[in-house]
Amino acid sequence: MRNFNKNKTEQVEVMALFGYEMTPCQPLTFRRRGEAETEITELLRTQIRFAGGVALHIFDVLVGREKMTLEFNSRDLSWSII
To answer: Among 7, 37, 62, 74, which is disulfide-ready with 42 (CB 3.0 to 4.6 Å)?
Structure first.
């Protein structure tokens, strides 16, 4: 997996499971532009932040042994790696 500048966000496509047991949303895989689909190994933590009337759903995940943070923007329904 390529290195990622942690100071920027990168939009990604995410396959997520909604309404599963006690977790209302669980990202399963994501795909960066021009790359193959990447499986999320484990969901570590979720939180919601409100910024300017927009709910940002934050997911700390493991991809193999690498920690990553995915963000879902409820206004424009986009996913990003932050």
So the answer is: 62
How many degrees, rounded to 5, is the angle at CA 44 between CA 9 and CA 24?
A: 85
pLDDT in tens, 32-72: 999 999 999 999 999 999 988 999 999 999 999 999 999 99
| CA terminus-to-terminus distance, the chain | 16
Helices H, strands E: what count in the chain?
0, 7
Length of the chain: 82
